[in-house]
Design goal:
The complex is a heterodimer of chains A (251) and B (408). With 251 residues, chain A is α/β, with parallel strands linked by helices. Chain A has a single domain (2-250), classed as Rossmann fold, CATH 3.40.50. In chain A, 37% of the residues lie in helices and 28% in strands. Chain A has 9 helices and 12 strands. A 6-stranded mixed β-sheet of chain A has the order 6-9-10-3-11-12, with helices on both faces. Chain A has a 4-stranded antiparallel β-sheet with strand order 2-1-4-5. In chain A, helix 5 (150-164) packs parallel to helix 6 (180-192). In chain A, 43% of the residues are buried. Chain B is an alpha/beta fold. Helices cover 22% and strands 36% of the residues of chain B. Chain B has a 9-stranded mixed β-sheet. A 6-stranded mixed β-sheet of chain B has the order 2-1-5-7-9-11, with no helix packed on it. Chain B has a 3-stranded parallel β-sheet with strand order 14-16-18, with helices on one face. In chain B, helix 2 (31-45) packs across helix 5, helix 6 packs across helix 7 and helix 7 runs antiparallel to helix 8. The longest helix of chain B has 18 residues, at 390-407. Chain B starts with 10 loop residues before the first helix and ends with a helix. Classes of the chains: A alpha/beta (251), B alpha/beta (408). The interface between A and B is medium-sized, with 30 and 24 residues.
Chain lengths: 251, 408
């Protein structure tokens, strides 16, 4: 489903190269964990996948279902089924959460040639999804993410993911800022989305989240490259021994 | 032609002076009113203000007012559906109060201003200008022909909103709305400035708020894109009274809205002058501009705090969203403070759409154009949501939506 080949990407503003020849393949149905120390390029990778303008791809290719997405803008990528759950979801004053959800869902439906949702159908879907995440509907009447706690913001991201039903989910440090109860709820939300035709990329600094979202593969990112791949035991090893050993081994 | 004695007049200046000669005999009012009109036209004869006049620095009226349409009695304007359903509508159509359609409200006296000027019951002093650079006041005093006088009796708690409609039909109109709100009365007033064609409209609202009274006044200016709209809102506040003023400007080619609260003066395209002359007053001004295409927006705001006005709490914020590289915005916030125990502040920002916000919305599949529209609307809606009247918030949001639908 996702094939990244020899990807090089830099910060558009100052030309600093962050991703330096990254290779990664994630199949449909797979949950892949990307781990790495601070500054290894984890968040940059997630932004590059989502199409953020601040980063430039200078070399290599990102294929999604066999086709390059590099020329697509963030909206087109999202409409094609790519979803990024942000590490720091944006607070947008003045945009009501419900209004935003409706516009986003209908924009994607429109891109797929479907009719817009009726108001009752929309409300029904939102209520159902919010219920499973233990979210209060009153919260959704507030402006998007404004005044939400860290945990509420992460839940709101997963809520959007449930409603938009993407094919490729990229979760950037979804565990940061979550207490253990919230972590379980969020992990349950993600696990419920596991399906043979969906790939999930979990970017995380710690192994903790992977106790709840058990990955099929684990990839270690260091200085913009995947330096080691393995199964879930690799994450356990990292937790026990840290990154130093693997970095040394790769060098 | 006398081209040597005075600087050459612009065609607009000439047209105004000629129009005064033609209109004078038709304008209502007794001798005292006529004296005010004469004084006002003398001021205009000296020339429209230019950028050399400080309060007009960013709005060179002499240069910007390029055409003055004639009075056109035959042009027709229609009453509009009110912004808030169930409002009592006071229509002025093409400059004339449509008196046969007046609503009756308990505790409220309404009289067309032409009648009041004619029967001598309108105090001529109300036509005084607030200074030698009060060009809008002068234009209006010289030509004012109609409008409404509204008197709300003390203690009236008016559930029905009053909507004053000043609807243009493309000609020249000059109207005035003196409104007196008695002690302890509560009222919501909407001042709607609308219409069609390349009109020149001057409109002056004079609000007198009694002690303990509460007024929510909304100005919605939705003139045609070819219209010149010169307006003043003057208010004097009684003890413990509360005035919430909300202005939404969405139309017009040349628009200047002056706001003078508590009779201190100075003006500009959009001027807020708050004069804190007594202790323990609070004021908050939030101004939001959205600049598109080649628009030029101007905000001049001044807060005066007299020496005896201790404990004044005054804040002024002007935020501008600049959507086009060709747009321009001028801002001049001023504080003049003579007291030493006050909290005053002002802030002005000019920003573009936040790229992070745009990215977030697009990352959810919302096309760039729609996402930008949502963010612009959010910028404006934030101010609207501050209003406590829920029906009004909804009505205004619907208007913002339709504006974006038409201009997006």
């Amino acid at each position: 489903m996702l094939e990244i080949k020899n990807l090089h990407a830099r910060i558009a503003e100052d030309g600093t190269e962050i991703i330096r020849g990254l290779n990664l393949t994630v199949k449909a149905g797979e949950v892949a964990a990307i781990m790495g120390p601070n500054g290894s390029g984890k968040s940059t990778l997630s932004y590059v996948l989502a199409g953020r303008e601040d980063y430039e791809v200078t070399e290599g290719e990102i294929l999604y279902n066999g086709e390059s997405i590099l020329e697509m803008d963030p909206a087109e990528r999202a409409a094609s089924g790519i979803f990024l759950a942000f590490q720091y979801p944006m607070e947008i004053p003045g945009v009501a959460t419900m209004e935003f959800l409706k516009v986003a869902m209908n924009a994607q439906r429109k891109a797929r040639g479907e009719d817009p949702l009726t108001i009752p159908e929309f409300l029904k879907q939102v209520k159902a999804a919010a219920g499973t995440l233990d979210m209060d509907m009153a919260m959704l009447k507030r402006p998007l993410n404004v005044g939400f706690s860290g945990g509420e913001k992460k839940r709101a991201e997963i809520l959007q993911m449930k409603l938009l039903q993407p094919k490729l989910c990229v979760l950037d440090e979804t565990d940061s800022g979550l207490d253990i109860d919230a972590l379980k709820i969020v992990a349950d939300g993600v696990n419920a989305l596991r399906s043979p035709d969906r790939a999930i990329v979990v970017i995380t600094h710690y192994q903790r989240l992977l106790d709840y979202i058990v990955p099929d593969s684990v990839h270690v990112l260091y200085r913009g490259q995947v330096i080691k791949s393995g199964d879930k035991s690799l994450a356990v090893e990292l937790e026990a021994n840290g990154y130093a050993g693997i970095i040394e081994e790769a060098a | 032609m006398n081209m040597h004695a005075v600087p050459q007049r612009t065609s607009a200046e000439t047209a105004l002076i000629d129009a005064f000669g033609e209109r004078l005999s038709l304008l209502p009012g007794d001798g005292e009113v006529m004296v005010k009109r004469d004084d006002a036209i003398e001021l205009l004869k000296a020339g429209l203000p230019t950028k050399r006049i400080e309060s007009w620095h960013y709005t060179d009226l002499r240069r910007l007012l390029t055409a003055v349409p004639e009075h056109d009695q035959s042009a027709k304007a229609e009453v509009l559906a009110p912004i808030l359903e169930g409002s009592a509508v006071l229509p002025v159509l093409n400059g004339v109060a449509a008196a046969n359609r007046l609503p009756t409200l308990e505790g409220v006296t309404i009289q067309p201003l032409a009648e009041k000027l004619a029967d001598g019951s309108f105090a001529a002093a109300a036509l005084d200008l607030y200074g030698s650079d009060d060009a809008i006041g002068a234009l209006n005093t010289a030509f004012v022909a109609d409008g409404y006088f509204v008197d709300i009796a003390a203690g009236t708690d008016l559930a029905t909103p009053i909507e004053i409609q000043n609807v243009q039909a493309g000609g020249q109109t000059h109207v005035r709305f003196p409104v007196r709100v008695g002690n302890g009365a509560r009222v919501t007033l909407l001042e709607r400035q609308a219409g069609e064609g390349a009109a020149l409209a001057s409109s002056v609202s004079q609000l007198l708020v009694g002690d303990d009274a509460e007024v929510l006044w909304l100005i919605e200016q939705e003139q045609a894109d070819t219209a010149s709209h010169l307006a003043q809102f003057k208010a004097s506040l009684g003890k413990n009274s509360k005035l919430v003023l909300f202005v939404m400007n969405t139309g017009g080619k040349l628009v200047r809205q002056e706001i003078i609260v508590d009779a201190a003066g100075e003006g500009s395209v959009f001027t807020l002058v708050l004069d804190h002359s007594v202790p323990h007053t609070t004021s908050t001004e939030v101004v939001r501009y959205v600049i598109t295409d080649k628009a030029h927006g101007v905000f001049q705001g001044r807060i005066n705090v007299a020496q005896k006005a201790q404990k004044t709490d005054a804040k002024m914020a002007c935020n501008t969203l600049l959507l086009s590289d060709d747009g321009e915005f001028s801002v001049k916030p001023e504080l003049e403070i003579f007291a030493d125990d006050v909290q005053c502040g002002h802030g002005a920002t000019v920003t573009e759409i936040d790229r992070n916000h745009l990215f977030y919305l697009m990352a959810r599949g919302i096309e760039e154009k729609t996402a930008r529209g949502l963010l612009v609307k959010a910028f404006v809606a934030e101010v609207v949501e501050e209003l406590e009247n829920e029906a009004l918030v909804e009505a205004l949001e619907a208007r913002i939506d339709s504006w974006f639908a038409a201009h997006g």
